[in-house]
Amino acid sequence: MNISIIAIGDELLIGQVIDTNSGDIARRINPLGWKVNDVQVVADDADEIKRAIDRAFETSDIVITTGGLGPTKDDITKTTLCQYFGGEMVENPDVLENVKQVIADRGLVLNDLTARQAIVPSSCNVIQNIVGTAPIMWWERNGKVLVSMPGVPFETREMLDAAVLPMLIEKFPTNTAIEHRTLMVVGYSESLLAMKIADWEESLPPFLHLAYLPKPGLVRLRIDGQHQDKALLISEINHYHNHLVKMLGDNVLFDDDVPVEEILLLELKAHGLTLSTAESCTGGNIAHLLTSVPGSSAVFNGGVVAYSNDVKRNILGVSAQTLEECGAVSREVVEQMVIGACQAMKSDCAIATSGIAGPSGGSDKKPVGTVCIAVKTPGGIISMSHHFPGNRQRVIVRASMTALILAIEQIRALPKHQISSTVEE
C-alpha cells in the first residue's frame, strides 16, 4: 500500500514551524508494511494544494494531508478540498457539539470564529476530533482515500491511533505478516559497524532487510521483514537477530528500541539504586531526559545545574584549589562533582558534566567541544574527557548521551544485574 503525505502551511516553507507530522505518520505507517511514497510541503495556496493532491494520487492509494484546518482566513484547506471533491460548505451539528465539548473541557468560552470549525464540505465523511476543534475529513474516489488531518502535532498523533489508522486498515486489509527487531549498538561508527557485520548482512534472506539508524553515541540496527507465512518470518527474524546479538556481544546496549534514559532508569531500578545529576555544560539536559520518563521519581533523586564555580564549590563541595589548578573543565572537577551530588541529594549514583559547548570559550588545550564526564556508582568513580564536534546544541546532546551510556555501563558492571520491565508510574 502506497501513501503520500502533504503538509500544508506557509509557516512550514519559511521554517517558522518544523513539519513533525510527516515523521509521526511515517513511523505509524511503517509497522503496517505500507510504504510512504513521498512527502510534499506546500503553501496555503489553493492551486498548489490541488496540484499536490493530483501528484499524490498518481502514485498512491492513500493521501494524508495535515494543516490548514484552523478557523482563520489563512487556513484554506477545507474550502480547497471542497472545490476539489465537490459539494458545498455546510454546518455539521455533530461537529459543532464536539467543538463545544472540547472548548468546555479546556475551560474556555466558545467564540464565533471557533464555532466556524463546524462548517465542513458536504462531500466528506467527518471523523470527530476528540482532542481538538478541527474536524478530520475523509474522502474516497476511485478506490483511493484522502484524509485531511489537523496541523497540531499532538492532535494528529492522537487521532491517527484512535481513529484514522484503524479505519484505513479496515479499508485496505492485508494478509502479509510484518515483524521487526531492533538492537541499540554502542562503540562503533555506522561505517565500522557495517564492515563488522557485512557477511551477516549479505546472508539475509530476501524478505528481511537491515536498516542503520544512527543516533548520537549509538547506532540502532533494525531488522524488518514481511512474509505471507508469519511463523516462518518470526523464526527467521529471531534466528538472524540472535546471531547478531552474539556477534556484537557487550556492544549491544539494549535489545529493543528504547530511549537511552529509560534504559538507565531500568538498570537503576533493577539494582535498587538511586541517581542524581550535577551538570554544567549540559545545563540540566540529562535531568530533563530522565524526568521525561514516567515513574523516574522512583530512582532519580534530583539534579543541580552547577554552571558557575560558586555553585560547584558551595553546593557540590568542589575544592577551590582543584578549580584553580585544574580548571572547571577537568576530570578532577567532575569527579568531585559526583561525590558532592551523591552527598547533597542522598543518592547511590551520580553523573556529572563540565565542558565548553561553544561557540566561544575554548583554548588550544581545551577547544570548544571539550567535555569531561564522571559517573559514580557503589563500584567507584570513572571519569573521561571527550571532544564532541558540532555546534552548541550538538555538543550538549552528544555529551548527554555519552554520560547516560557511561552510567549504564558502570551500573551493569555491578553484581546481581537483571532487568525486569519498563519503568512505570
UniProtKB/TrEMBL annotation:
Q: Give the protein's recorded name.
A: CinA-like protein
| InterPro entries named in the record | CinA, CinA-like_C, CinA_C, CinA_KH, Competence-induced_CinA, MoaB/Mog-like_dom_sf, MoaB/Mog_dom
Q: Which PANTHER family match?
A: NICOTINAMIDE-NUCLEOTIDE AMIDOHYDROLASE PNCC, NMN AMIDOHYDROLASE-LIKE PROTEIN YFAY
Stretches of the chain forming a coiled coil according to its record:
none
NCBIfam families for this protein: cinA_nterm, molyb_syn, PncC_domain
SUPFAM superfamilies in the cross-refs: CinA-like, Molybdenum cofactor biosynthesis proteins
Q: Which CDD domains match?
A: cinA
Q: Which family does it belong to?
A: Belongs to the CinA family.
State the organism of origin: Muribaculum gordoncarteri
- Stretches assigned to the MoaB/Mog domain: 4-171
Could you say which residues form the signal peptide? none
Tell me the superkingdom of the source: Bacteria
